[in-house]
Specification:
about 25% strand; 16-stranded mixed sheet; single chain; 11 helices; about 20% helix; about 475 residues; 23 strands
């Protein structure tokens, strides 16, 4: 199935709890014309200049410049407002024209640059052009920087902003040890490195030089096979490690992630890319970890994870050794392969007994998932605390129906269950809805207030949907917004 949002889906949702069919998008309350359309006052323009400049600084470059036509009150503000400049949206027929457009905007704007995004591959003279821009006084208090370059390493002047930067994304370039040595980023909260050539010591030194770091994305960095996390401030971590062969006889790529000391870590996203990722969470190293994903079955096409929580080992989706349970994890995302089964889901619920949200991308086929006799005694003792369940790639075959029925009949505090069907499923057919009610035994729900939703909308995000460090800051990183 294609990644979230790649396909157009019919925006129809079926509420099979009462048999009705309703659109997923509710009408906008109030509707109709805006404030000016009703003859209301322009209260925004009454704000002080500094407030309006801050608003303008949050807009993309073109939209910010267009604020000059709103009213005479706004005409002079753009030129002095902090500039949010994304060069990548500029269109030019040649490199010289692209350079000229960037220089024209920078020279015509009198205010400081707050955010600067540049793809140096489009520049006629990448080192010379970017170095000249970065040395300009307009960049003295730069807060956000995105830099991409395949042709050349970034100029040395790029690191003069380290005292003021709050968000940095660097992609497809080389970060030399000498350039990173001793750098400190006292205010940096978001750091994203994608397809960057960097040594492990330099990477670990860079992380250590960011005492306020909250979100870290490391995406297939060349030269990094083992990532060690020691950060007192880190809240969200996403890792996609390219890995190296474990031995000449083993062609499978292996990457390693070790959480040694991360007392504030709440979200850990394992973004495997054809790699077996070995994850070690040292005992008591992440006492606040609440969100974990994306765990893959051992035969899943994107590779799988081997996770060691203290003494508890999870191989793929199978709990090999349950020594101690992990009570902090409340949100879990799984990608099941053809061998995935309800047994694995139950094992993981025993490992994470305080789960409240469970997201599963289902396999098309698998074992029967019969459970009434097999788990008769376990059900009496298993305390299922799930409130939200989202199941993707739902076909309604025997394997999947039995898995869903387990949750329907045994989740006593369940509030919402969403089943994502493939495009083309007739969710507006009453006969189809009735069959789903009967197959899933919804009249016997353990939680009488639970709502079961059928939809053809794309509900679940894939690991490849996590493309930017900002994606780690989402309240729910596993559902499509």
């Amino acid at each position: 199935m294609e990644a979230g949002g790649a396909r157009k889906r019919k925006r129809i949702s079926a509420g099979i709890n009462s048999g009705e069919v309703a659109p997923t998008e509710a009408p906008v309350p109030g509707g109709g014309a805006g404030e000016h359309g009703r003859g209301g006052a322009d209260r925004i323009s009454d704000l002080p200049d500094d407030n309006l400049r801050h608003i303008i600084s949050l807009l993309p470059t073109k939209e910010a410049a267009r604020t000059r036509i709103l009213a005479s009150r706004w005409r002079h503000l753009w030129c002095s407002a902090p500039l949010n400049f994304d060069c990548r949206v500029l269109a030019a027929a040649d490199e010289d024209g692209y350079n000229g457009m960037v220089e024209t905007i920078l020279s015509s704007h009198q205010g400081p640059v707050r955010r600067f995004c540049v793809d140096a591959n489009r520049l006629a003279d990448p080192p010379g052009a970017t170095d000249a821009w970065f040395r300009s006084a307009a960049f003295d208090n730069l807060e956000e920087l995105e830099f991409h370059s395949i042709q050349q390493p970034p100029p040395a002047s790029i690191f003069r902003f380290s005292p003021t930067l709050r968000a940095v994304t660097i992609g497809r370039t080389v970060l030399a040890d000498a350039a990173l040595h001793g750098l400190q980023f006292p205010l940096l909260k978001h750091l994203g490195l994608a397809l960057v050539v960097v040594s492990e010591p330099s990477l670990h030194g860079l992380i250590a030089g960011c005492p306020a770091l909250e979100c870290l994305l490391i995406d297939r960095c060349v030269g990094v096979n083992c990532i060690r996390i020691n950060s007192l401030s880190l809240v969200s971590l996403g890792a996609r490690v390219s890995g190296l062969p474990a031995s000449p006889s083993d062609p499978l790529l292996h990457g390693e992630l070790v959480i040694e000391n991360a007392p504030c870590l709440q979200r850990l996203l394992l973004l495997n890319a054809g790699t077996c990722l070995h994850v070690t969470v040292v005992a008591l190293a992440a006492p606040k970890l609440e969100t974990l994903g994306f765990l893959n079955g051992e035969n899943y096409l994107c590779g799988f994870s081997r996770i060691l929580f203290g003494s508890t080992l999870i191989q793929g989706l199978h709990v090999d050794e349950l020594i101690t349970v992990v009570r902090t994890v409340k949100t879990l995302s799984l990608n099941m392969d053809s061998l995935g089964s309800l047994d694995m889901a139950i094992e993981l619920m025993r490992c994470f007994p305080c789960l409240e949200k469970l997201y599963i991308r289902l396999a098309k086929s698998g074992p029967s998932n019969s459970w009434r006799r097999k788990h008769r005694n376990l059900i009496k003792s298993l305390d299922i605390r799930l409130k939200t369940i989202v199941l993707g790639s739902y076909l309604g075959n025997k394997t999947q129906v039995n898995l869903v029925k387990f949750f329907v009949l045994n989740s006593r505090v369940l509030e919402s269950m969403t089943l994502e069907f493939y495009v083309g499923t007739k969710l507006d057919n009453e006969e189809f809805l009735l069959k789903q009610r009967l197959d899933l035994q919804l009249e016997k729900k353990a939680s009488r207030g639970a709502k079961v939703h059928l939809t053809t909308d794309c509900c679940l995000r894939s690991p490849w949907d996590v493309k930017h460090v900002r994606d780690l800051d989402l309240a729910d990183p596993f559902t499509c917004q």
